[in-house]
Design brief:
The protein has about 600 residues and is α/β, with parallel strands linked by helices. It has 3 domains: about 325 residues, ABC transporter type 1, transmembrane domain (ABC transporter transmembrane region fold), CATH 1.20.1560.10; about 170 residues, Rossmann fold (3-Layer(aba) Sandwich), CATH 3.40.50; about 70 residues, P-loop containing nucleotide triphosphate hydrolases (Rossmann fold, 3-Layer(aba) Sandwich). About 65% of the residues lie in helices and about 10% in strands. It has 20 helices and 10 strands. The strands form 2 sheets. It has a 6-stranded mixed β-sheet, sandwiched between helices. β9 and β10 form a beta hairpin. α2 packs parallel to α5. The longest helix has about 55 residues.
Length: about 600
């Protein structure tokens, strides 16, 4: 029940509204008991008239009028509570989505490294739906059912104690059987949720990587994997259904037995005239109405179990520790001359060996530095640490001689522009993508950034120009166009530090030339750190940091490194030899 307590706590801002809806539903439920009582009085008054006893037509009309008013009031209250319920559902959905999304945005990068985006979205949707259903259950069923049960049994006891006792016995029988049914249902539900989360995540991954899937002719394998998982879900659902309907039969059978006993007592009492016809009508109507709270008890237990299991992952994410309080990010001025220094920095990812071991180096303002090394040497990790996506396990990082530990993360990132290896674009317009780092930029500033990035020429060829939608991850643009949009975004942000993460690794020669020109405009008078495998990208750098298995094996000028034995000269040799071979093959030497 711990997740139920969390649901109640998390919805605290909406408790007044939930309370109002509950009150209206309680009144509506109580009014539902007025009708059987009035029916009893009306029937007794008619019987008196038939038996020529003291009866009153005015009193009969009054009772009918009160019954009508009660019915109209019930309809009004039901309409109001339904409308308020819709209002509550919308606000609760908004509140829960905000809570979840806020938490996601503040979580450390390590969380996203090990999570599939489709799975996260599925957990969000399921958690919100489950909690909404539970809130609706609280207002629509729990309180009304409890009060209806108490009032109904009290009225029955007033007229016939054995009937009240038999009716009361239905509830523990129903609750015990429902408890076992729902407990088994919950176990299967958790297994289904895990498979469903995987399926949703996989489907989203396949859609995002559809060219990869098709290029390897793996559509059928991907389809079969999802179908097999759906079959597993159906197998689990079949077991759930078998258990549920078996126990549901026992519940309904016990209800039939109790109703038979009650009917025997009622009809026998009416036959022997120990019960009036009005009392018989009242008891039969109450027995008909007792089904509602009785079935509600079963439904309530199922909703409780569904909320307990379905909201589990939702709350697991909410319980994770946030590492960034982005709501309190400060707007800070950019540094005039920015430098970065690593002192004895070591780092490793969760469940991995050391990636960096006692790294130290200093990057001064306006320098152009390259990071070179074999794959897995730690180049991207250094970038992640500079961006403060992660914190070092040992050692310190400094921005202009101020320790990162004493720097606000927004200040650090405000002074750094990162151009990614992959074209990280949103599906929105070119204008929105370019101005992502400077939301209040004017159209003139955006156009100027595009021109400096060699991008404006192709942007104006689009029908919608700046308002052209680029599609998911910029799918409507070529590789070179996507990179130049990224560069325009970095130019507009105008940070004193620029990081280029293999920004030209996947481009053709012409696109690479256009991007290089754009990069020159981006990197003027800035500290530039470049990760590159293609040495054409780093031909104009002043120094190169050579990484090898988490250590700095060398730190020197390109010329000096090229003329001495080491990783850099080795990698350079491989590229030169490859180029020579290509030139020779085409007789271009």
């Amino acid at each position: 029940m711990k997740n139920i307590v969390k649901i109640i706590k998390i919805s605290k801002p909406l408790h007044p509204l939930i309370g109002l809806i509950s009150l209206l539903i309680i009144i509506y439920s109580v009014l539902g008991l007025v009708s059987p009582v009035l029916s009893k009085l009306i029937v007794d008054e008619i019987v008196k008239h038939i038996q020529r006893k003291n009866s009153s037509l005015d009193y009969l009309i009054f009772l009918i009028f009160i019954a009508f008013l009660s019915s109209v009031l019930s309809i009004i209250l039901n309409s109001i509570s339904d409308r308020l319920g819709d209002y509550l559902a919308g606000r609760l959905r908004k509140f829960l989505t905000e809570k979840f999304y806020y938490k996601i945005l503040g979580l450390p990068q390590s969380f996203f490294d090990s999570s599939v985006s489709g799975k996260i979205v599925n957990q969000l949707n399921r958690g919100i739906q489950i909690i909404q259903d539970f809130a609706n259950t609280v207002t629509s069923f729990i309180l009304p059912s409890i009060l209806q049960t108490i009032f109904t049994i009290a009225i029955l006891a007033y007229y016939n104690v054995p009937i009240a006792i038999f009716t009361f016995l239905l509830f523990p029988i129903y609750i015990i059987l429902s408890y076992f049914s729902i407990k088994q249902w919950g176990r299967y539900e958790e297994q289904k949720n895990k498979i469903e989360d995987f399926n949703r995540g996989r489907i989203q991954e396949v859609i995002l990587n559809i060219p990869l899937v098709k290029s390897f002719n793996n559509q059928l394998d991907e389809f079969k994997q999802v179908v097999d998982n759906l079959s597993q879900i159906n197998t689990l659902y079949d077991k759930q259904s078998n258990n549920y309907h078996l126990i549901d039969f026992l519940r309904n059978f016990s209800l039939s037995i109790i109703l038979l006993l009650v009917n025997v007592i009622v009809f026998y009492g009416a036959f022997k005239q120990s019960l009036t016809l009005g009392e018989m009508v009242l008891i039969l109507q109450l027995m008909g109405q007792i089904r509602s709270p009785l079935f509600a008890m079963s439904f309530i237990l199922s909703r409780v179990q569904a909320a307990e299991s379905g909201s589990k992952e939702f709350f697991e994410i909410l319980n994770l520790k946030s590492t960034e309080d982005f709501e309190n990010y400060k707007q800070t001025k950019k540094l005039e001359n920015a430098g970065i220094e690593f002192k004895g920095v070591s780092f490793k990812y969760k469940d991995s060996k050391d990636v960096l071991n006692n790294i130290s180096f200093k990057l001064r303002a306006n320098e152009k530095i390259a990071l070179v090394g074999h794959s897995g040497a730690g180049k991207t990790t250094i970038i992640n640490l500079i961006m403060k996506f992660y914190d070092p396990i040992k050692g310190d990082i400094f921005l202009n001689n101020i320790n990162y530990k004493n720097q606000d993360v927004s200040f650090i990132r405000n002074n750094i522009s990162l151009v990614f290896q992959e074209s990280e674009l949103f599906s929105s317009s070119i204008k929105d993508n370019v101005s992502y780092g400077k939301k209040l930029a004017s159209e003139k500033e955006i156009i100027n950034a595009l021109k400096l990035a060699n991008a404006y020429e192709f942007v104006v060829d689009f029908t919608d120009k700046l308002n052209t939608l680029v599609g998911e991850k910029g799918v409507k643009l070529s590789g070179g166009q996507k990179q130049r949009i990224q560069i325009a975004r970095a130019i507009l942000k105008d940070s004193p530090i620029v990081i280029l993460d293999e920004a030209t690794s996947s481009l053709d020669a012409k696109s690479e030339r256009d991007v290089h020109e754009a990069l020159e405009n981006l990197t003027k008078n800035k500290l530039v750190l470049i990760i590159a495998h293609r040495f054409s990208t780093i031909q104009n750098v002043e120094k190169i940091i050579v990484l090898d298995k988490g250590h700095i094996s060398d730190f020197d000028t390109p010329k000096n490194l090229a003329n001495k034995k080491g990783i850099y000269s080795e990698l350079l040799h491989y590229q030169i030899e490859g180029n020579k071979k290509l030139l020779k093959e085409f007789d271009l030497q």
